[in-house]
Amino acid sequence: MNFSFDQKSLWLVVGVAFVLAVATAIGQILRRRTDTSLNQATIDVFIHRINGWWLMCSVLAVTLLLGRTVTVVLFGLVSFWALREFITLTPTRTADHRTLFWVFFFFTPLQYLLIGMGESQYGLYSIMIPVYAVLFILARASFSGDPKRFLERAAKIQAGLIVCVYCLSYAPALMSLKIEGYPAPGNEGRNAGLLLFFVLVVQMGDAMRYVWDKAAGQRVIAPAINATKTWEGFTGGIGSATLLGTAIWWVTPFPVWMATLVSLLISVMGFCGGLTMSAIKRDRGVSDYGTLIEGHVGVLDRLDSICFAAPIFFHITRFLSGSGWLT
Q: Is the pLDDT of residue 115 over 90?
């Protein structure tokens, strides 16, 4: 079903486009100046990131305009690609191939099919992967008859499915979340604004963390995991994302103070997602999950924060609505 953004969501899209246009102009000015004290490599990274943001925001906006079904399909394809990046970090054994077939071509599509069917399937899509799929992976792997590094192999597949598919699927699930006193059933325009709010806050925390790291970063949080993530970047990124969430509270069902607290929580979870996925990359001896998007390395490198924050945001919103806090 095609639909249009509600007016508030449309203004938010226009505002994002304006900010990106300003950032693009700043990047081009800095590139042309020769008297700037900024490192040219840093400027190039900034420009590549802005170009990547244009691509991602444009795709997301167009997808949301086309409706909930298209949004679910898009996130399903992204999950498939992110899971592929995750699994290919560690070479698999021949015995794992049939297990992976079920993971990629049965459980991943099934999760998004249930998400697409709406909140009526919440009781199933909320447990299908963490219960049935996790147990199936262990059983199917044992039928392969290969005990070598069995626990390590099974755990890797389980972790990839949980993070890249199950957690990420809660982002498009926001489109069908019924919130008391917010949109009427079938009015998905407001829920599109809620999804935009979530993506913007989490990604702003990630982007501003990078800026604060470059501008004021001194105390590294975990040098062996990521030498660029500092406490100054953590504080600045979380603070910037929280301020953004507070400023655009009007596109959500939350009052101002609640939007502030929710923004704080999901930006913290986003940072935890980035740090956790960095630990996995270091364990495997790689710097990035892929090179699909220029300036944004792999898909999973840019979605790690969203993966960790999506189920938290979904369930908090659902709990607040069910408890009557949002009416």
A: yes
**Residue 20 covered by a domain:** no
Whether residue 114 is contained in a domain is answered as yes
The Cα 53–Cα 245 span in angstroms is: 18
Pairwise CA distance, residues 265 & 230, whole Å? 19
For residue 187, pLDDT over 70 is answered with no
> Residues 50-82, buried b or exposed e (16+ Cβ, 10 A)?
bbbbeebbeebbebbbebbebbbbbbbebbbbb
- How many whole angstroms separate alpha carbon 165 and alpha carbon 25? 36
Q: Is the pLDDT of residue 36 over 70?
A: no
- How much is the mean pLDDT over the chain? 86
Is 255 part of any domain? no
Q: Is residue 233 in a domain?
A: no
Could you tell me the residue range of the domain that residue 100 belongs to?
69-176
pLDDT of 292 over the 60 cut: no
How many domains does the structure of the chain reveal?
Answer: 1
- Which whole-number Å values give the CA distances from 167 to 136, 148, 246, 259, 286, in the listed order? 18, 29, 24, 21, 23
